[in-house]
């Protein structure tokens, strides 16, 4: 099996999860949306952990608890995804737009791979990185021109930094032979720690959590993104390296835009995506294509 399969699987599952997350955010209560997002994140962490458990059990869930694995889970799941949820909310329930801002992450991850993880890039990888950088600059330009929200951009930058740090910790703490076990430990530890921190807060805020009809959507997002996509993504990092995995999967926001547009049209809700976002996403997709075709 080609090692590229895991990156493609992760990108596809992330793209499919974007409209599901949109549907969940659209059902948040009018008041108390931040507590509701925290409840949604808790549901996603729980469902993702339970969804990954059957895949981890056959291997006996080897003792993969380590400082780096736990840090990888914390930065990837409750910290970065919590910021991602807030960014999607800042865009008026449009997760596919929030994902575009998070794509500053490849630049940070590649920098970490080169400076801290000891990886190297060949000529095609540098071309891929240049296209991804161009897409990032288009995003920043759009914010300066007023097409995009500065608040959402800041949330996206923070999301990108948290994701990039999580990926660096995956590079340090994971290996290919036990990546599923490590993924489970990272996700389960994040769920337990976030549950301890968030449960007292949610109990105090229960009056504003609404009817909880949004929780099934967050739970499904947890299964697809946390349980499945990230396990494939982490395995790809362990097999082919951090930089190559990041370059390969940088196209997923473009795919998320396409999937969400099709879904909205089928529901009679076309929506509007600024042209500058399509341009940025297209550059990111080209950057991924260059790396995949020359891998």
In words, what does this structure look like?
The protein is mainly α and 295 residues long. It contains 12 helices and no strands. The chain has helices at residues 4-26, 33-56, 67-90, 95-101, 105-115, 123-144, 150-173, 179-204, 215-240, 242-249, 252-266, 275-293. The radius of gyration is 18 Å and the shape is globular. The two termini are 15 Å apart.
In brief:
With 295 residues, this protein is mostly helical.
Protein topology:
Blueprint: H1 4-26, H2 33-56, H3 67-90, H4 95-101, H5 105-115, H6 123-144, H7 150-173, H8 179-204, H9 215-240, H10 242-249, H11 252-266, H12 275-293
Helix pairs in contact: 1-9, 1-11, 2-3, 2-8, 2-9, 3-4, 3-7, 3-8, 4-7, 4-11, 5-7, 5-10, 6-12, 8-9, 9-10, 10-12, 11-12
Rg value: 18 Å
Alpha-carbon distance between the two ends: 15 Å
Q: Kindly name the structural category.
A: mainly alpha
Largest beta-sheet details:
none
Essential attributes:
mainly alpha
């Amino acid at each position: 099996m080609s090692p590229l399969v895991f990156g493609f699987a992760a990108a596809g599952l992330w793209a499919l999860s974007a409209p599901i997350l949109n549907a969940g955010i659209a059902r948040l209560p009018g008041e108390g949306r931040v507590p509701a997002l925290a409840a949604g994140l808790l549901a996603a962490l729980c469902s993702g952990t339970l969804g990954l458990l059957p895949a981890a059990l056959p291997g006996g869930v080897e003792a993969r608890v380590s400082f780096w694995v736990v840090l990888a889970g914390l930065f990837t799941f409750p910290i970065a995804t919590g910021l991602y949820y807030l960014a999607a909310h800042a865009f008026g329930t449009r997760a596919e737009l929030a994902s575009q801002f998070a794509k500053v992450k490849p630049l940070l991850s590649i920098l970490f791979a080169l400076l801290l993880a000891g990886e190297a890039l060949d000529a095609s990888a540098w071309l891929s990185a240049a296209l991804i950088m161009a897409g990032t600059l288009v995003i920043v330009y759009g914010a300066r021109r007023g097409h995009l929200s500065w608040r959402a951009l800041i949330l996206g930058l923070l999301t990108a930094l948290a994701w990039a740090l999580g990926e660096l910790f995956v590079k340090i703490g994971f290996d290919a032979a036990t990546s599923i076990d490590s993924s489970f430990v990272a996700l389960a530890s994040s769920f337990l720690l976030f549950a301890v921190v968030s449960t007292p807060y949610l109990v105090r805020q229960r009056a504003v959590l609404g009817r909880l009809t949004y929780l099934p959507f967050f739970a499904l997002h947890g299964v697809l993104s946390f349980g499945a996509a990230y396990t494939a993504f982490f395995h790809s990092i362990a097999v082919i390296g951090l930089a190559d995995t990041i370059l390969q999967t940088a196209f997923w926001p473009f795919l998320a835009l396409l999937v969400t547009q099709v879904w909205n049209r089928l529901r009679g809700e076309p929506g509007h995506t600024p042209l500058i976002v399509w341009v940025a996403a297209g550059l990111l997709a080209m950057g991924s294509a260059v790396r995949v075709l020359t891998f």
